[in-house]
Fold:
Amino acid sequence: MKPDWLDTKEYPFTSKYLELEAGRMHYIDEGEGAPIVMIHGTPSWSFLYRNLIKILSKHYRCIAMDLIGFGLSDKPADFSYKPRAHAANFEALMEHLNLKDITLMVHDFGAPIGLAYAIKHPSNVQSIVMLNTWTWSLSNHYTYSKASKYLVGPLGKFLHSKLNVSTETLVHELFGEQSKLPESIQQQYIKALGDPEEHVRSLACARELVGVTKWYDELWRQRKRIQDIPTLILWGEQDKLVKIEALQKWKKFFHECYVMHFENSGHFLQEENAEEVASYVNNFIKEEQKKRQPELHQ
Structure:
């Protein structure tokens, strides 16, 4: 049953669930064709991809999950909320759906989760689309450390559990200049984080931005397994959190990399530039399919 606060005109998709040890994980599976799998970050959920899915599902099979603790998925008290656990849940969904030759679309905190799968199953990932993200240790990164410590510190927890301020502040701050985004849409992100006590648990994701250096380092050491996967990078240059240095690092890393800059956009291109993003993704996948045609007919 869908919650009362959900705007089903904005999010008109059929809800599906996968029963996991941690709880029920919600996902949507719309359209037919080559699969595009979309992974969100924090504090968002599959709602972020709704406009892309409306466009791309006309030609592709679009799958978008809600990480445990987010969106319409369960928010269990005893789940670790560490990225390694989220990555295991994502792998379980992939096995459940038996998806092959996917385009993996990752954003924000979703990249370490998605790329962990790609590193483990590189032959199953046909191409990658990245939006403002990273996959390396942030322990020495001041911006992330400061944000992470605030979100899980005593003040952050108090605001969250007592006043319900921190969630709204976080969403409004991350959307930054996207204040033109209607309040009703921003409320879909705020309310999806659940009750105030549930908010505190989901903030574990923010803490883990810094707290799992070892796991990030493990992924980064294995990165060459995905270095040859064709990748499209879409980058909002006004992002206050993931700086342009991260983009430079990705550009040096991938052997076949296409970069599109959005000079006046921030962290959430899916909200600001959905039609343009969908067009780039569509063209990218079509071009990669054309390159593979000789292989398919051999």
In short: The longest helix spans residues 274-297.
